Amino acid sequence: MTSTPEPPRGAGGSLLDLVPVVPVVVIDDLAHAVPTARALVAGGLPVIELTLRTPVALDAVRAIAAEVPEITLGVGTVTTPAQAEAAADAGAGFLVSPGTTPTLLRAMLEVGLPFLPGTATVTEAIAVLEGGVSEMKFFPAEASGGAAYLKSIASPLPAARFCPTGGITAASAPTYLALPNVGCVGGSWLTPADALAAGDWTRIETLAREAAALR
Predict the structure, then answer these.
(1) What residues contact residue 63 under an 8 Å CB cut-off, 6+ apart?
(2) Catalytic residue at 151?
(3) CA-CA distances (angstroms) from residue 27 to 55, 56, 58, 87, 197?
(4) 37-58 pLDDT, tens per residue?
(5) Tens digit of pLDDT for each residue in 151-198?
(6) Catalytic-role residue among 49, 67, 110, 142
(7) 3-state DSSP helix/strand/coil percent for the chain, to nearest 5?
(8) Is 110 in the active site?
(9) What is the DSSP letter of 35?
(10) From 137, 151, 205, 210, active-site residue
(11) What is the C-alpha separation between 207 and 213, in angstroms, rounded?
């Protein structure tokens, strides 16, 4: 586990309030995991959502948990109860799912880590609220209606707060962050594949620093 205190789920000062942009990271090469995490921390974004999209993902979680304890380490693309358990065992500090079923919601609750369950519709958001969770991921954000959609549901669902992810850029992020029901956004632009392949940690640090200044 990381040494970073785990924020309470569904409360002020929790996951959605740590940073304006949560870096969403895909690691293909295990050697890139720790330098990427360190570059994000150096740039002022001490949070990472490392996705379970590659064979080395869980090993990358273990490496970051062991070597970059100052980062709040999230594991994303959690789609099964087994993945939720494996992520926790590997050292995750929080979980993120792209969508939510009753089974997956129950499993993430049982794991006991903070988490952001994925939603894309009003019905899904209500189901998550009924499960006792008020903070959630909105995914895929741009394809599901974007900032205009989130703005339209803020009044009927005042308890719901979101981290929209999917298709968001440095240019569009401020529009989301200005919404009352958005605490942060998720962004993959902070760790571009060519920068990772080249080991350009300075570029990643610079992108993180720019994102940390967004409001």
Answers:
(1) 30, 33, 34
(2) no
(3) 9, 7, 10, 15, 10
(4) 999 999 999 999 999 999 999 9
(5) 999 999 999 999 999 999 999 999 999 999 999 999 999 999 999 999
(6) 49
(7) 40, 15, 40
(8) no
(9) H
(10) 137
(11) 10
